[in-house]
Design brief:
The chain is an alpha/beta fold. The chain has ten helices and seven strands. Bound molecules: S-adenosyl-L-homocysteine.
C-alpha cells in the first residue's frame, strides 16, 4: 500500500527513496508505540494522513528549484511534513523546529537511520528563533502543519521568511473564513496572500488546503513578541 500511495503522487522516486519511506514507516510506528507522538497509530492512516498529506505540497511545485532552498518546518512534532520532504528533496536543506526535546530526539534519530544529511533540527521556541540574526528572514520556505491558531502562526512564521520567500501553511477548510479577517495582519507582518490550493486525501480521509503567503516587506522588529505572547494575545 505504501508504494502504491506514493506512486499516485507521480514523484518518480528512486529505489533508495522508496526504501527510505519503508524504513520511515517502520521506525515511526515503532517510536509512536513507545512514546506518544501522534494519535495516528496504524499503518494505513500513517501512510495517508502523515506521508501522503505531507507530500501533497509536491503538487504545488514550490519546493522544486534548481537552487538549494532552505526550508524550515515549524512545530515539526514527530517529523511531519519534515521527514517525507527531506526524502523527496535531497537537494534542499531542511530545519525542523520544536520546543519538545523528546520529539526532536526522535526526529534526529530517524533522520540518522535514514541517512538524511540534508536535515537539521533545533529544539527551540519559534519566538526565540525568529529574533535570532542567524535565522530571522533567512528561509526560502517556511512550512507549518497543525502548528498553531492562524494569527499566532502568522506572527511566529512570517518573521523567519526571507524577502521573496514564502510561508506555506497546511490548513483545513475552516481557514477560508478566517483568512478574510487576517489580511491586515498578514500585511503588517510583511506578507501577501499569493495562492490557495485544495486537495482531497484518499479514502475520504479529509481535505487539505495550502495557503501560500509571499514575503514582500521586512517584518517589523517587535515580531514575534516574547515567548507565549503570540498565543496568549494573538494579533487582531
Ligand atoms: N507538524 C506536526 C506536529 C503538530 S503538533 C504534525 O503535523 O504532525 C504542534 C507541534 O508544535 C508540537 O509538537 C509543539 O511542541 C510544537 N510547538 C507549538 N508551539 C511552538 C512554539 N512556539 N515553538 C516551538 N514549537 C512549538
Amino acid at each position: 500500500m505504501l508504494t502504491k500511495t506514493l506512486k499516485s503522487l507521480d514523484l518518480a522516486l528512486s529505489k533508495k527513496q522508496l526504501r527510505q519511506f519503508e524504513k520511515l514507516l517502520e521506525l515511526y510506528l515503532e517510536w509512536n508505540s513507545k512514546i506518544n507522538l501522534s494519535a495516528i497509530k496504524d499503518a494505513k492512516e500513517t501512510i495517508i494522513k502523515h506521508f501522503y498529506d505531507s507530500l501533497l505540497i509536491t503538487q504545488l511545485d514550490a519546493l522544486n528549484s534548481k537552487l538549494k532552498l532552505t526550508v524550515a518546518d515549524l512545530g515539526t512534532g514527530g517529523g511531519f511534513p519534515l521527514l517525507p520532504l527531506a526524502i523527496v528533496y535531497p537537494d534542499n536543506n531542511f530545519l525542523g523546529v520544536d520546543s519538545v526535546q523528546k520529539k526532536i530526539t526522535v526526529v534526529k534519530t530517524i533522520a540518522k537511520e535514514l541517512d538524511l544529511n540534508n536535515l537539521k533540527t533545533s529544539m527551540e521556541r519559534v519566538e526565540t528563533l525568529g529574533q535570532k540574526q542567524k535565522h530571522r528572514e533567512k528561509f526560502d520556505i517556511v512550512l507549518t502543519r497543525a502548528f498553531a491558531k492562524w494569527h499566532t502562526l502568522l506572527e511566529l512564521a512570517l518573521p523567519l521568511v526571507k524577502i521573496k520567500g514564502k510561508l506555506i501553511a497546511y490548513q483545513g477548510p475552516q481557514i477560508l473564513a478566517e483568512l478574510e479577517q487576517s489580511e491586515k495582519i498578514i500585511e503588517l507582518l510583511g506578507g501577501k496572500i499569493q495562492k490557495i490550493s485544495h486537495f482531497e486525501l484518499p479514502e475520504n480521509m479529509g481535505e487539505r488546503i495550502f495557503i501560500e503567503i509571499e514575503k514582500i516587506k521586512n517584518t517589523p522588529k517587535q515580531y514575534p513578541r516574547e515567548i507565549g505572547i503570540p498565543k496568549k494575545k494573538p494579533l487582531s
